[in-house]
Amino acid sequence: MAMKRNGKSHVSSDSGEQFMSFKDVSLGPHEAQLRFRLIHFWEARNPVKKTLIGLEMLLIDEQGTVIQGFIPPGRIKKYLPDMKRGSVYKLINFYGSKNKPVYRVADHVATVSFAWNSEMSVLHEIPISFDEDRFRFHSHADFEANCDLKGDLYDVIGHMKLVDGQTLIERPSLDDVKISTTRHIVIHVQSHDGPVLKLYLWDQAATDFCKKFNSCEKTPTVLLVTTVNTKRLGGTLALSSMSSTRVFMDYDVQPTRDYFTWYSGSNPEIANQVCADVITKRETLSIAEIFSYMTRGICKGKSKCTATIDDVVHGSPWYYIACSGCHSKATNGPSSLICTNTKCEKVTTTGVPEYRAKISVYDNSEQAFFVLLGDAGRELTGKHASELVSSYFEANKSEGADHEVPVPEALISTIGQTHKFCVKVTDHNFSGNTRAITVTKISL
Fold first, then answer.
1. Overall pTM surpassing 0.70 (yes/no)
2. I need a labelling partner for 312 at 20 to 30 A (CA). Which of 2, 193, 357, 366 fits?
């Protein structure tokens, strides 16, 4: 019987061969055999210098125990040509190194490190079965508790609410070229009945998501993303992919299939849960309830909605030049500004900057875009739009009058704040994929 260097015997055997269980792997050198399925492998690089540190792996044995593996950079060429995700291997001789304290992908205290005398070979005939994968799901409370600690990387599963700023009511159009250039994509995802979370997928994870999403015959709903890092951005919890991240959708793996069954079977239309005339009253509704009425074409009127700001939309003007009399949009005439409101008594007018800022918000049910108009913007920032515009030009006197003022810090600093928004919904507000909702007042 082959022995570990510390004298313990191996726990599994068949066909005369002895294999050590991952549960018995301890720190130090081992003259022993391991048998495992290679779940995943990826390059580990220095985050600053980008130099190759080694090849990291996720392995699972026949008892379902998961452990992390590591191949030093000088030995990668020896093993990489024969490595294939999902294949089963035998490894002879290895070193049990201490599992790293940061960005861990497995619970085991040890890491299987390939040593100078390690020998790995693929097993084509396997007498026993191996699990294909193993996931580590945690609750929103766990993500909150581990935020910014750079400790364990856990997996998240949920249903997508927004993909690259687009809702799933109509299939989102994902631009491969754009995503490869920006190197990231943002998805808003909700796990069961928890809050909506902002998920950032970077580099290879973003590319994999885009390819998988576009290849699906039907618009996918369920998303499983592995080994995410928790961060707080603008005061709001966010999830970020790592180099070890993998992406799964609807029917890819058993957890996504189970979640899809739950979601499709126990998620009735919200519209059937609320009376149709509620939206016309000034009552507090969730974003999902408002969207449900909008889908049915009966969401016209005023309501209140408590939501958290998670972003201020850049790339479009956050203000417009308004008529000083009626505050409608003013346009350039032959010699002066002209009010576009035919009922306005001012034929020519003096232009005044007014808010028309687009913000991304969420609650426990959905994510949406709100448009802050006029006094709503002032109530949120504490400053008039004209004051912010004037301050910018005073600090940047070289800029011409036609220069578009960038989004001010007064708006950006509101990210992470939760408010009760008074919203008004008309046909204009939910045309297009973004279904932006107009905010008329804010209760601070």
1. no
2. 193
